[in-house]
Structure formats: C-alpha cells, structure tokens
Amino acid sequence: MENPLLLFPQLNISASKDKPYYKVMKSAIKEEPHKASKTGAKQKRNRLSLLLQKPEFHEGAHLGKPGNLTKAASVSPEEAVKWGESFDKLLSEKAGLDAFTKFLKTEFSEENIEFWVACEDYKKSKSAHELLPKAKTIFETFIQKDAPKEVNLDFHTKEATSQSIGQPLLSTFDAAQSTVYRLMEQDSYPRFLRSDPYLSLVRGRNPARPVLRRRSRSFTVNDFQGVRPDFTAW
Q: Which residues form the RGS domain (predicted)?
C-alpha cells in the first residue's frame, strides 16, 4: 500500500510534528494482528482508541490537552459566536474545526471529523492516479468492517462505497461523507454549542476543563430523520 503520508499531505488535524496521524494509524494497524471474532475486533479498536488519546498523537499542545479548545488560536467571543450560525461556518474556519475536533475527542467520536477531513482532501486530488491509493487508505481506515476508525454508515451506503473502491471517482465518498456530516450536524454539533468550553469562549473566558464523556450508543442517520437541532439551550 502507498505511504498514507504521501497521500494526505494536508490532513493534519490530529497529528503531531513528529508522528503524523496517518503514520501513527498505519503503524498501530500493523502491530495489531487480525482477529476474526467480534470480541477480538472490539478489543483492538478500544486499544487503538486509547492509544490515540495520548497527547503525543495530537497536533500541538492545544489539541493534546482536553478542555483548552483554542488556546493557540486566541479566538475572540465574536468569532466563537459565528460558529453557532451554522455547522458549515464552524467547519470552514480552522480554529472552529480544531475546537470541534477537540470536543469530539472528549466524546471518543473523533473518527467522524477525521473521516470528513480525509474526504475533503480526497476531493482535492489533482490527477486520476492519486485516487486509487487514497481511496483504499480511506476505506481501510474508516469504512471496511472492523476498520480501526470505523464510522457509522448504513448498509446501502457502505455497500455502494465498497463497490466503487476498485475504480474510484472524485465522488466515491460523497454519500458516506454526507451521512457522517448529517450525523455530526444533528447530534454532536448541538452538544458542542451547549458545552461549557464553547460557552466560555463566547463569554470571553478561558475554557474550563470538560469532563470526558463515555461514548453513547452509536446513532444512525435514521435516528434523526425529521429532527431539527434545538439551539435555544445555549
């Protein structure tokens, strides 16, 4: 397989200067033998998840320490308020993306934003020969059964994506990316806007250290059909 560091030079939201995210991911995968049983696969993902929580696997001190969402970015209250206008607005700004990524780490669901960023980078590929190795890396990291950072996709979306990996197009991951985007927008984003660290940014105070949340049950997009986020609480 192609070196993923060459495939995703711009993907660095969860990487340190010494150990880029995809290098850490690939080495961790190689160290873990494949296990056929569901129990073994779950233990493998849990160990890898704990490994990736260590500060040395994250980009800079401000992402390595829980709670300090945007220490290095010096986000103003006015800028933080704009993140509440829309999920698109939050992700379009680097400081907002970093803050949201840090929040997802506290909920142990950062694979969603990492997958979304990987798809954004994939769509920027400038030549056809880049697509196949990049597509395989994304598929093996985020989509295939028991992938180390497997995202929650419905059967039909996963199946359609799997069938196109052999001859990938720029649109290969569009359906999967849209599904994960909607899940974040309707589930994680409202909680981010109600979180103490975000509210502290809006009020112009230093973010307090949040309490790490255990991952709740996995949701699918069907859980949110017809549901609109309620932002009145914040």
A: 86-202
